[in-house]
Amino acid sequence: MTEEVIKTMCSHCNKPIVQPLSNPTSHIEALPEDVIHWTNGNAIVATGTPFEAVDYQGVSLSIALAVGWQAIEEGVTLPVTKEELKNKIDENYWSPEYRDYRRKSL
Questions:
Q1: How many CB atoms lie within 10 A of CB 23?
Q2: Is the separation of the CB atoms in 42 and 14 below 8 Å?
Q3: HSE-CB of 68 using CA atoms within 13 angstroms
């Protein structure tokens, strides 16, 4: 994710939720601190690995830990077939009334 991409997202949404891929940390798509600065402190940032809070204009903004750890605990990251993965996601992350709207690419 580049500064241009993040600023474009922010131009369409006052408080974008940005979840840069971050595992391993050395390959993170965008650092939380950069995202916070590029959005003037308006982004909600969640990553799959822990990051320290970002200080922005005297305010400490927490970086959320995204679904990565929960997926590990739930066993979603274990080697499974595509169908097993789809079912695991349905069971753990989609409320029954929203299951028809899941991504069709799985």
A1: 12
A2: yes
A3: 15
pTM given for the model = 0.60
Q: What is the mean pLDDT of the chain?
A: 76
Query: What pLDDT is recorded for position 38?
Result: 95
| Bigger pLDDT: 4 vs 95 | 4
Q: What's the CA gap between 35 and 37, in Å, rounded?
A: 5
* Residue 47, beta-bridge partner list: 65
Closest CA to 20 of 40, 44, 4: 44
CB 64 within 8 A of CB 44: yes
Helix H or strand E segment including 92: helix 82-93
